[in-house]
Amino acid sequence: MTTPIHLVAVANRGEIASRVFATCRRLGIETMAVFSDPDADLPFVDDADYAARLPGSTPTETYLRGDDIVRLVRASGGHAVHPGYGFLSESADFARAVEAAGLTWIGPPPDAIEAMGSKVRAKELMRAAGVPTLEAPADPTDADLPLLVKASAGGGGRGMRVVRRLEDLAGEVSAAEAEARSAFGDGTVFVEPYVEAGRHVEVQVLFDAHGTGVALGDRDCSLQRRHQKVMEEAPAPGLSDEVRAAMHHAAVEAGRAVGYVGAGTVEFLYDASSERFWFLEMNTRLQVEHPVTECVTGVDLVALQIGIAEGRLLDDLLPGGVPVPSGHAVEVRLYAEDPASGWQPTAGRLSRFDIPTDATFDLLARHGIRVDAGYGSGDVVGTHYDAMLAKVISWGPDRSSAMRSLRGAIRRARLHGITTNRDLLIAVLADRDTVAGTMTTSTLEQRLTREFSDPGPAGDPELAPFVAAVALAVRDAGRRVVQQRVPIGWRNVVSQPHRTAFLISGRDEPVVAEWYAGRDGFRSATDEDLRVVEATPDRVVVERGRFRQSIDVHIDAATGEVHLDDDSMVRQTLREVPRFTDPADAVASGSLLAPMPGTVVSVKVEQGATVAAGDVVLVLEAMKMQHSVTAPHAGTVTQIDVEPGAQVASGEVLAVVEEQA
Is 349 inside any structural domain? Predict the structure, then answer.
């Protein structure tokens, strides 16, 4: 017997909420969003038919308050709850509360969540089911290194530490426990062998409530940084038919061992040299990377989740049987993070957020780009939640064409206002190991993140400030209310060029553009071959010799920043240097500034304390990650301006360390 669902509430936020709403619209199902105060203006709230506010800002005040969410859904007349991923998606208690309230839970049974929610318990079940698992000795020695400390609950790389020296094990266990407790409310961790050159391969499984289970293809998620996935693709490249079949069988057996129902993902660590694989964990929810499976199979996984929750048979939901993958799909995760600051999460307003796309939250039936985004132009990225901005997915008839089109889309994206990992994604998609399909879980950490941790300024150092100066001059001329017929930059006697100074991302010192303007247009004072063919506040076309180049310009009205893009050679952010500096902007020597907006977790020293260079002065938490703020030199802490629990803005003075004479 099936029970149709008429209104679905999503107990989550951002792109996953919008993703579920998109399927519900196609199925004719009404939708409800729940949102926190910082999320009130994000797109997912408007994407729903109804929305209810969760007062507060932090996860524990909002999206982790299962009791509040259930009350809101019942009050709205909702029929079902979809948990998305993260937050309460793998909480057995929340699933039980939903069912106890008479609502339909679009997810696996609470007992299955509980069984797989503890990675320690899950390993025991997998051993009993005959699924291969990794095991660490109770008393490890140097011969057992490296080891991996992992949180028993949760995922996403939080509560995970690689240990390469035995003397570091106890400290890393403590750090992992604290991070896991903060992220998941459960500080339980365990230790297993760390396979340096392994690949992360996972299998999508589906089970109905009548005992039928199938494997719906596989994905490779090996390219990771800090144990968080950066790129995923389907099918997983380089697997033999025998290994693929064995993985699919093991994944179905893993789900069957816990009485699974719904969509889930079984993750394996694969050693290509020996063609062996081991069970890592089972995610009892929809995965972030589910779109690549949708693109190659042509099925809507959210629709299947809803159909299974309604009690329908898999045979009816997949009338043609398990689809054979067609073509290849690749996904990259666009994060708000700064490579020049150790890949710390960034926050702020997205003045422009434009990615070329053929579809949004939809299947791709042809070669094209799909974008699943949680933000749009003008939205504010805060510090309380995950730093992922969007997932960009490409489907093509083969792997190389899918990767090439995805790289092109990322390159052509216009992302202004905050720093992202866009350059890393472009590099990843062109990397020799990625192109060859031989990447491992350590590839990114070993090479690419070092090569791109400080990429420096891109493009021609002469061209960017000249183009920015021209765009600002044209904009300012358009604002005139008097003397509108006077040419831009006109002077009665031309003795010196105009000089416009800019601060450029990646450079310590200002860069000065020297230029002339008149009835004949703009020209550079330092490069006689450089001239302007066409100029508006949004686009400047320049010519050097026989070569012409068109550069997009975006002038942020709120900040005054000038963003330049031409897809490849130029991608710069410039800020005009004012002629006079406000004394209020000066800070004392030795000031420790907040590297990003966040919350002070702990203050490690007292005012008057003596510190050495590199000593931790305080710890910030932003976007679910902790960041240490250290002393820049040996000296005395003469000022502490914050205390635990304080909310701080980027650039705010936290403390002052006076350098020793």
Answer: yes
619: which 2 tokens? 């710890």
The DSSP 8-state label assigned to residue 578 in this structure reads: P
| The predicted structure's pLDDT at residue 455 | 46
Spatial neighbors of 141 by CB under 8 A, at least 6 apart, are 166
DSSP string, 251-305: HHHHHHHTT--EEEEEEEEEETTTTEEEEEEEE-S--TTHHHHHHHH---HHHHH
Strand residue runs (E) in 60-158? 80-82, 104-105, 147-151
| Residue 49, domain CATH | 3.40.50.20
Positive or negative, the CA dihedral 456, 462, 466, 467 is: negative
Nearest residue to 9 (alpha-carbon basis) of 67, 61, 73, 68: 73
| Predicted local distance difference test score (pLDDT) of residue 448 | 66
Q: In the block, which residue shows the tokens 């996403």?
A: 156
Whether residue 111 is contained in a domain is answered as no
CA atoms within 13 A on the CB side of 32: 25
Rg of the chain, C-alpha, whole Å: 27
Alpha carbons 633 and 17: distance in angstroms, whole number: 46
Distance from C-alpha of 127 to C-alpha of 107, rounded to nearest angstrom: 25
Q: Is residue 2 part of a domain?
A: no
DSSP line for 515-529: EEEETTEEEESS-TT
CB-count burial class (<10 Å; 0-12, 13-18, 19+) for 264: buried
Check whether residue 211 and residue 311 sit in a common domain: yes
| Contacts of 310 by beta carbon, 8 Å cutoff, 6+ apart | 2, 3, 4, 5, 104
Q: How many helices (H) and strands (E) does the chain have?
A: 17, 41
Enumerate residue ranges in the chain where pLDDT < 50. Answer: 454-458
Which residues does 569 contact at the CB level (< 8 Å), separation at least 6? 458, 459, 460, 549
Residues 489 and 560 in one domain: yes
My answer on whether omega of the bond before 146 falls inside 30° of 0, hence cis, is yes
- Cα distances from 76 to residues 31, 52, 84, 89, 598, in angstroms, run 10, 9, 19, 21, 34
Q: Is the dihedral of CA 154, 290, 37, 102 positive or negative?
A: negative
Whether 79 maps to a domain, the answer reads yes
Query: In this structure, are 281 and 383 located in the same domain?
Result: yes
Q: Are residues 269 and 344 in the same domain?
A: yes
- Element spanning 246, H or E: helix 241-257
Q: How many domains does the chain have?
A: 5
Give the C-alpha separation, 498 to 492, whole Å.
13
Domain that holds residue 481: 463-576
Give the CATH number for residue 255. Answer: 3.30.470.20
Q: What 8-state DSSP symbol labels residue 497? A: -
**Nearest-CA neighbor of 395 among 385, 386, 405?**
405
Per-residue H/E/C for 118-141 = CHHHHHHHHHHHCCCECCCCCCCC
pTM over 0.70: yes
**Residues sharing a CB contact under 8 Å with residue 401, sequence separation 6 or more, in sequence order:** 328, 367
Q: What is the structure's pLDDT at 454?
A: 46
H helix or E strand, kind and range, residue 25 = helix 14-27
Say how many C-beta atoms besides its own lie within 10 A of residue 575's C-beta.
17
Sign of the alpha-carbon torsion through 153, 201, 232, 444? positive
